[in-house]
Amino acid sequence: MTATIGYLGPKGTFTKLAVDKTFNGEAKHSFSTIPACIDAVNKDEIDIGVVPLENAIEGTVQLTVDYLVHQVRLPIVAEIVVPIQQHLLVHPNFKGELSDIKEIHSHSHAIAQCHQYIHQYLPNATIHFTSSTGKAAELISKRDEPVAVIGNQLAANIYHLNTLQNNIHDFPNNHTRFIVLSKQKEMVKIKHPIQSEKTTLLITLPSDFAGALHQVLSAFAWRKMNLSKIESRPMKTGLGNYFFIIDVNQPYDDVLFPGVKGELEALGCQVTVLGTYPVYQLDKL
């Protein structure tokens, strides 16, 4: 049975690039927003959803985390790490100089990844945010004006845009983590070597008290469990109320993780496994 895969679209996004490199031959559907893609998996309109989770320069995609925690709980079944190259793209009829650009359009994370470049070379350009880099490219392709989009080479090819300048991101080690969501893990078939395995936990505290985070981390530390990420996010129930997202660099087992869960629950914490999954690293797009 062939799986149907959804991604943050339209065509020309980095998510689409990641999906094309990871999955072969499956039917693919684009969605205009991250929540729309997640909802489609939850409603069984598609089998698999791929959405961005974190960028090495800009950090966590908060919309993805908050929607998975507060709105729709779906298991994370895989992670795809891909290199990101941001280019400055313009309409093919644009013949001016870099200083002639009046507007820059792109996703907020793409803009943030190129802050220093914009500050140095385009300080007077007005910034406009879009739902994705692909959407920005689609909009600019219809405007024969001195405007630019920050996006990738796929977007340039699809929407027939010219590349005014290559690799404008501020730091060379620019990677993004994409998570694969599915109710049916067996349908996710990725033919790339597994780089590592990871388990993501959602932990909520009963209340804010002195040493709370220390007690949580101690449950992992004395078991010698390596944590690659700890992040707090507001519970949206009032100021000072937070939950923690913790990534553990090992798959879920029947000894260590139940021990951690029991120890934290004894402290009054709630522990939810958001996923235990393989991590795939793509060398290039």
Automatic annotation (TrEMBL):
GO terms for biological process: L-phenylalanine biosynthetic process. Pathway: Amino-acid biosynthesis; L-phenylalanine biosynthesis; phenylpyruvate from prephenate: step 1/1. PROSITE patterns: ACT (PS51671), PREPHENATE_DEHYDR_1 (PS00857), PREPHENATE_DEHYDR_2 (PS00858), PREPHENATE_DEHYDR_3 (PS51171). The keyword Lyase applies. Keywords: Amino-acid biosynthesis, Aromatic amino acid biosynthesis, Lyase, Phenylalanine biosynthesis. Its EC number is 4.2.1.51. The record marks 176 as: Essential for prephenate dehydratase activity. This is Prephenate dehydratase. The keyword Amino-acid biosynthesis applies. It comes from the Bacteria. GO terms for cellular component: cytoplasm. InterPro entries: ACT-like_dom_sf, ACT_dom, Chor_mutase/pphenate_deHydtase, Preph_deHydtase, Preph_deHydtase_CS. It catalyses: prephenate + H(+) = 3-phenylpyruvate + CO2 + H2O. It is an enzyme of class 4 (lyase). Residues 4-183 form the Prephenate dehydratase domain.
